[in-house]
Amino acid sequence: MSNFVINGLLQSRNPLLTFRRFRGKINIQRPRAPHYERARVLEIIKPYYKKPEFNAPCIDAERTKLVGKTMDNPYETIIAREARNWFEHSKLVALLHINSIKQEDMFKAQVTLHRHNVSVKVYGKSIMRKAVVDTRFEAILPLFEAKTAIIFSPEVLKIKQVLSVLKKTPQLVLMGGIIEGRLLSKNEFVAYATMPDLTTVRAQFAAVLDSAGGKIVSDLQCHQSQLVNLLDAYAKNDTPTSAISDEKVNS
């Protein structure tokens, strides 16, 4: 009896479960239609793609160009205002074309120029267009078709230090510069570095004017001095002759 109770009543049996997605085999080529509600939802969320026109890429590119011209970027406006301020308050500006260069070498050149109180800036073409259009610096805008760096210095005397750093960094090619508001070519920029400073030139000019004035005074007094010298020599030569004639008369 106890065996019957243990084996028949107290023993639990776990059911064997088998999961199948469909009752039959799934037909991939001809799937079964979804339920009505699901079919409605699928129809609503079905993506719709407009057939592109034949010249759609050209139209989109032109539209993007027009939008870029009409859209005003506030950040670019701020950077352009900063760039214009650098141009207005810098007595020395050098324009450099940037060839392929390591960032490490570029950083070394910037550090060396910064020690001489010289700043290096790199701006894009759109920013420079906003910065220099309708100003006296508009002539430099074609130089920014490629990647260009700008050197700003509040002192003109730093031109020798700038050329020395550029000589050690051949990847930075000098294209021209602006000195005290005047646009110079590369040759004029280099020639300006060989000229003495303004104080020395002023001293030389004052010496030339002083020498010219002294020469004019000497030329004006030349005839008078020559006449005085001739009269003095004549007086000295005439004294012995008059003395001898007086002695003859007395004897």
From TrEMBL:
Q: Which residues form the signal peptide?
A: none
Q: Specify the domain of life of the species encoding this protein.
A: Eukaryota
Entry-linked Pfam families: Ribosomal_L10
Q: Does the keyword Ribosomal protein apply?
A: yes
Instruction: Enumerate the UniProt keywords alphabetically.
Output: Ribonucleoprotein, Ribosomal protein
Sorted alphabetically, which SUPFAM superfamilies does this protein's record hold?
Ribosomal protein L10-like
Q: Which GO terms describe its cellular component?
A: ribonucleoprotein complex; ribosome
Task: Tell me the protein family, please.
Answer: Belongs to the universal ribosomal protein uL10 family.
Summarize the subunit comment. Component of the mitochondrial ribosome large subunit (39S) which comprises a 16S rRNA and about 50 distinct proteins.
Identify this protein by name. Answer: Large ribosomal subunit protein uL10m
